[in-house]
User: Fold this.
Amino acid sequence: MASIRLESITKAFGRTQVLNGIDLDIADGEFLTLVGPSGCGKSTLLRIIAGLEKQSGGDVNIDGKTVNDIRPSRRDLAMVFQSYALYPHLTVRQNLATPLQLRDMTFTERLPIIGRLAPGYSGKRAAIRDAVKNVSDTLQIEHLLDRKPGQLSGGQRQRIALGRAMVRDPAGFLMDEPLSNLDAALRVHMRAELSALHRSLGTTFVYVTHDQAEALTMSDRMAVMMDGEILQLGEPDEVYQQPMDIRVARFVGSPQINIVTGDMDDDGRIAFLGVKLARRPSDGTTGRISIGLRPEHLYLHPHTPGKTFCGELVYKENLGSEVFLYIKVADTEDNIIIRVNPTEAQSIALGDETHIAHEPGKALIFNDQGRRITLAGSPLGEDAA
Amino acid sequence: MNLSRSSMWFVAPAVFLMFILLIAPVFVAAILSFTDYSLGNPDFNWVGFKNYAAMAKYSAYKKMFSASLLYVIIVVPVSVLLGLGAAMLISSLRFGGEAYKAIFFLPVMATLLAMAIVWEFTLDPIVGVVNAYLTRGCDVGWWYQFISGAWYGADPTTSWYGNGCNEGFPLWIGDKDYALFTIAFIGVWQAFGFNMVLYLAGLTSIPRELYAAAAMDGADSAWERFKLVTWPMLGPTHVFVITITSIRSFQVFDTVEALTRGGPSKSTYMMVYAMYEKGIQQNLVGIGAAITVVFLVFVLALTLTQVYFVNRKVHYS
Amino acid sequence: MNGQSSLRGEVGKHIVLLLGASIVILPFYLMLSFSFKSPAEIQSITGGFFGAQEMMTDQFCVKQGRPLAECQMLPVVYNYTAAFREAPLLRYLLNGVIVTLSIFFIQVLVALPCAYALAKLRFWGRDVVFGLVLFCLLIPVHAIALPLYIMLAKVGLTNTYAALIIPWTISVFGIFLMRQFFMTVPDDLIDAARMDGMSEFSIVWKVMLPTAIPALLAFAIFSIVAHWNDYFWPRIVITGDRDLMTPPLGLRMFKSDLDGNEYGPMMAAATVIVAPLVVAFLLAQRRFIEGITLSGMK
Assistant:
């Protein structure tokens, strides 16, 4: 059991600053995901927690103790690597036993033949054998124990890597993109398995990924990182529904959120593409703004001035249960994407002019620095406008 | 068909040359080893296994085998371990690695015969730098005491260095007790840079994550990480480096021919030189061919061992 | 890991490596140094690296009856002129160039089409030929030297350029290497060339050769270094005829003829023979290391 607390962690490689003062509290037993595009510093942060990398500044606390000068192996954390990092010359059984041998057996006990003579050798050996057996039962990998990693499939290696982490019964698991080398179907399956594993073990998981879908599906909380900073930390729903930064809004959600530019008049009324909002900023900001609209919050609607905007349908992406329409709207750079059901999609053909409205209250407004602006007033008023 | 006719033209010259220049000579050597053939003689007699029996009988050939074996036994482990050590040191350096790498590789590049002559000159008992400086050192008190062991209370005259100061330093290649070791030293000097480069390539191909995993698993000391990751991951490199160094050591010729001609008292009489001396210089083709066949068997055995290891043991994925 | 202890480690490593480097470089240093110095300085081990460069008299020049003043020269000049005069060094170097380049070109001429056929053409007996190549890779050159010598002597070819070149015209390693490289060339490229109407012959030289330049360059270094430095084979087939000697063999003859204090010129000759490859190596280290360790790809 471990809670992990990071206090103003900074890291620089030479002159390149990769982490700019990260503060993070990870509760005991929590599944926390660090998510962000590649190069955002998330893997470095994980390696700092593991002790594989030394931070340039700040403290890492595990269970209230500062572990800055404690070796990786003494932090009672286990790690699952992207490439699995199994020892290719050892069998699966030996791979699983290695962390236990290194932790529990003395130098002499580990010697090839002489070790057997050491007192306590057989007891420790039996304990290690039991631990390996338990883990392989849990993960259903008994039949693989005598093979070498080279003879296993990607998914099997993934399981062995998990097993190697589990066998020490660590206080926390660190996972560095563990699913990114698997094919798409297996990845979806493993998400469910990892969630189940987390529930049954009840230990802390810190999970690094660049895939926002993994973060949304598995985590208790997710931290969206960009350019060496945590932009937003919260439950997946909250991060998705209420992104506090335009970069977070863009990163989370697939297909991407639609961003259009808008104006705010002196009165504080917001208008974009001829649509006017009823709510106004609570703090009285003015200037250029951006409006974020998720595809599922847009729908086809008969032409209504002040409420709808129009464009030309250029592409239909049919996913079977739902269809995404790509609509070219004058004055916007990217196509606007809206989600409709298949029957609605039937009624409209490529090249048609379409009119689009948004669900009241769902528009996300960002100021020119990309920070979220909260709106006051009744969203229902937007219908009337 | 047109395509297959052009294939014939493409392959035919190579196949022809392989037969004439590589395969036929092996059989010719095998046949000659059962004769008393000499170049210039119109005729020859079949002598059965007499040439091979001679190899088992005469002390010169026993010395040939023991010298070759001793040379290989010295040069292989020393140059392999030096190569590995240099590679590990260099790959862990923060700067300057490229320069050391270039310097250690120089002997591999340089014409061995020329460098052997320079070494002979360097080790010359009269004008050679090595003995000159060893002798000068005898008069430098602290150095003499340090090296001869007088500092630690030992009797300086019984030590190698103290003895050298009194009796004169070894003649190196002129002394039958030192000649083989001196030739082996030149062999190591020449070979270890090659091994170093192969080990450097082997080291860079070890995934970094494996070291991170070892650190997480509790391999805390450098020795533990070496044992768990570096050494086994270099498996394929070891096999290759050891075989190629063994084969090359068996083939040592330039230094022997130029410096010792197998002497003094056959202490450096190694196989390829013996083959050259008997078969070509003395025109005893039969015995030369017999040495060739034995040599070939040794080298093939080494190569096949390598193939076995590569296929069975060390390919992990 | 704190900075101080890792700094101490770094310094320690440099000390060990510098010690090793000084032993490795010692003969190169001495060779160069002795090629500069006068006989007296060499005998007495004085004069530092470059020697005092006091004027000395060239006895050979005096014997030729030239005026004494003309025969005074700097030791460095003396050593190098003597090297080129007493050993026909230029001739050796020229022979070296002729032999190594001829070997390399014939090797490519034979190996490239064969490698292409083995990699990309399907014909009866292909696997047998490839098996033959693999088998021949096992045969060490020292094991066939004696029979080859007998065969060459029988046809009266010893003491000719042909004797130096012919045994090396087939490089099974070259075939193997180029075949492995050609396996990675996409079939589409060859099919496209065929659609353009190229013959198989022009595909080899106009399509495959250019794509193989990097591999060929490495092989060139491998082959040229090996044969420039080779002493064993020239020693066997060239007996007596100085005009055919390659650089190492010429140097060996120079050493046999040595009359006592000609160390300076000999070291000058050694320097001249070693220098081309060493200089080329220092200029293109990566390529040379790659080329010479090619045998590591087997």
Notes: Chain C has a mean pLDDT of 84. Chain C touches chain B through 90 residues (CB under 8 Å).
